[in-house]
Amino acid sequence: MADETNSPRAPSTSAGVTVGDMQDYLAIDGDDNVLKSLIEYAEEDARGSIDSTIDIEIYRKLPIFNQAVRTLVDFNYYNRGALSGQQIAYPKSYQYMLNKIRWKAGQSNG
């Protein structure tokens, strides 16, 4: 069975993605405040794209949600300042994960 996180370095944590997780994931040191802001943005973006009525703590328990957050943070971290020239607003893998979560949320809601 394939791991839904799609990354061996992506820990499954009910606390969600932390600055330390992102530093390990990106293999970087520092940038704590930048990463914290990007994590907060990514969580709210993902939550808003799926169902903002569901508490963030519920989403943080889902490994695929945490991986979606990591994916968007990675994308935004390495594309800071260059986003105006991008032809895509989000990575395709991020969209795929959000769609999968939407489908799962729809199954449990109806």
Automatic annotation (TrEMBL):
Query: InterPro entries from the entry?
Result: Phage_gp6-like_head-tail, Phage_HK97_gp6-like
- Domain of life of the organism encoding this protein: Bacteria
| Pfam families per the UniProt record, alphabetical | Phage_connect_1 (PF05135)
Q: What is this protein called?
A: Phage gp6-like head-tail connector protein
Q: Which species expresses this protein natively?
A: Leuconostoc litchii
